[in-house]
């Protein structure tokens, strides 16, 4: 249902004509995200470029009963930024993109939600500091989106994920009122941990205004290596072996043979296409000698678990080539077929080998082309089903396979999503992982903060 012209003019009064998109061609750009789901064109798109205008936009939309979808770059893979229906408003935050403060003395930064993750990490690094979370979409994703979905990344094993770096934030509630939570201090127990509640909320509880982010000193030394295997299960078993040896690499990544072949064909990075699987490993720390010792222990575990070769990066250029190849996995796979269904089922690390085997069995059963890579050190797999959504028979097999992948993850005491979020793509499975009481508790909490259930309707819980 179209929004009345009178209401459109109210938004224009707040934001200016250039920040309100009404033409269908403009609105179509905000009808989809990275998920393989049907697009929904919003009735209106608004792009505030000032904090006070963001609050006024939220208030006006809510007062008039418009479903509100907040969107940064729209890179998420769960349908979390697709409007539920075409009668609402998409509020863009990517024009709120200022780094307001980088405090080198107290190790924090204050940012607006539309700051691009990689740009922020580079700005922090230029000051001699480190922001560890590094989602695969970091070159285009925004920090607001990272917080909303608690984004992870390659360094999550050692350094944690986005929520571990949130010290506080300001939020606009459904009335457009500014709510403050957290602090610039290391310790803060004033009031409820609302910042923690907002992390992973997927836009269902309020709208980020500013975010206070913890920074840390960077590691002084690192070693990166590539371990080759003739058997994928041996590669997956190495992951548990490294952790059992009480070594915590900063990155511990898995790529199966299909992924390696697609990435090598796309990037020509020199990956070993003959390997059944590879592990990409990096250890880091504050002292060169300690890093060398950890690297030697990792190599010993890899050899004990049956690797055929370990290639250690000799310099920064070789190290960069290893990680660029890993970061190129999703783009390479996405170019292989018209559609890609990328999941992120996650299991306890000890069950990682079982989950890898289960995914291979499911792919064989449903006659699907599935390439698997992921954050092995976190137990976080990304089974990537290469397909053509236009082929209804094939896509029916894809949907059946996804159901079985989730069932396998839950059987191994895992979870539906390690880092991509629930959105609308996985909402129907939430009760299967938790229970009815958990779902109702969450809905009641949501109603208290969003009485009309207008914030990102249809997401997380259905």
Can you put this structure into words, describing what you see?
The chain is an alpha+beta fold and 462 residues long. Among the domains are: 5-92, 2-Layer Sandwich (Uridine Diphospho-n-acetylenolpyruvylglucosamine Reductase, domain 2), CATH 3.30.43; 99-214, Uridine Diphospho-n-acetylenolpyruvylglucosamine Reductase, domain 3 (2-Layer Sandwich), CATH 3.30.465; 221-330, Alpha-Beta Plaits (2-Layer Sandwich). Helices cover 36% and strands 19% of the residues. The protein contains 16 helices and 16 strands. It has helices at 5-15, 24-28, 51-63, 117-125, 143-149, 156-159, 194-198, 232-244, 257-267, 288-304, 316-327, 329-334, 352-365, 392-411, 430-433, 436-449; strands at residues 20-21, 44-46, 68-71, 89-92, 99-103, 108-111, 166-172, 178-182, 207-214, 221-229, 251-256, 277-285, 309-312, 339-342, 369-375, 380-387. The strands form 3 sheets. The chain has a 7-stranded antiparallel beta sheet, sandwiched between helices. Strands 5-6-9-7-8 form a 5-stranded antiparallel beta sheet. Strand 7 and strand 8 (178-182) form a beta hairpin. Helix 1 (5-15) runs antiparallel to helix 3 (51-63), helix 8 packs across helix 10 (288-304) and helix 13 (352-365) packs antiparallel against helix 14. The protein is globular, with a radius of gyration of 22 Å. The two termini are 22 Å apart. 49% of the residues are buried.
């Amino acid at each position: 249902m179209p929004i009345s012209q009178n209401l459109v003019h109210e938004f224009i009064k707040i934001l200016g004509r250039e920040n309100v998109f009404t033409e269908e061609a403009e609105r179509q750009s905000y009808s989809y995200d990275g998920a393989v789901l049907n697009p929904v064109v919003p009735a209106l798109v608004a792009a505030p470029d000032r904090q006070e205008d963001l609050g006024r936009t939220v208030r006006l939309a809510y007062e008039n009963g418009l479903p509100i979808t907040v969107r940064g770059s729209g890179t998420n893979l769960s349908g979390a930024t697709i409007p539920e229906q075409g009668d609402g408003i998409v509020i863009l935050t990517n024009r709120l993109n200022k780094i307001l403060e980088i405090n080198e003395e107290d190790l924090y930064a204050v940012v607006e939600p539309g700051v691009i993750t990689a740009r922020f990490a580079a700005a922090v690094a230029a000051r001699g500091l480190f922001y560890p979370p590094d989602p695969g979409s970091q070159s285009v994703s925004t920090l607001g989106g990272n917080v909303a979905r608690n984004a992870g990344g390659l360094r999550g094993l050692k350094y944690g994920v986005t929520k571990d770096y949130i010290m506080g934030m300001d939020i606009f509630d459904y009335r457009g009122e500014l709510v403050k939570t957290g602090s610039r201090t290391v310790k803060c127990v004033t009031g409820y941990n609302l910042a923690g509640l907002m992390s992973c909320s997927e836009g269902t509880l309020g709208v980020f205004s500013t975010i206070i982010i913890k920074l840390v000193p960077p590691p002084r030394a690192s070693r990166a290596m590539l371990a080759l295997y003739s058997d994928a299960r041996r590669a997956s078993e190495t992951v548990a072996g490294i952790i059992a040896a009480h070594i915590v690499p900063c990155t511990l990544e898995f790529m199966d043979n299909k992924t390696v072949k697609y990435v090598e064909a796309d990037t020509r990075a020199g990956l070993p296409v003959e390997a059944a699987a590879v592990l990409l490993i990096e250890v880091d720390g504050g002292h060169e000698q300690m890093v060398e010792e950890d690297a030697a222990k990792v190599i010993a575990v890899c050899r004990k678990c049956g690797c055929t070769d370990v290639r250690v990066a000799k310099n920064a250029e070789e190290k960069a080539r290893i990680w660029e190849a890993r970061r190129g996995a999703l783009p390479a796979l996405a170019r292989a077929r018209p559609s890609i269904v990328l999941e992120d089922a996650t299991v306890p690390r000890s069950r990682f080998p079982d989950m890898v085997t289960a995914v291979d069995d499911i792919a064989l059963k449903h006659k699907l082309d599935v390439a698997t890579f992921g954050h092995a050190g976190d137990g976080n797999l990304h089974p990537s089903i290469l397909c053509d959504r236009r082929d209804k028979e094939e896509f029916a097999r894809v949907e059946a396979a996804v159901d079985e992948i989730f069932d396998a993850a839950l059987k191994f005491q895992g979870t539906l999503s390690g880092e991509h979020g629930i959105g609308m793509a996985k909402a129907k499975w939430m009760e299967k992982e938790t229970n009815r009481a958990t779902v109702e508790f969450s809905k009641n909490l949501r109603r208290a903060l969003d009485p009309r259930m207008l914030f990102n309707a249809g997401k997380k819980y259905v």
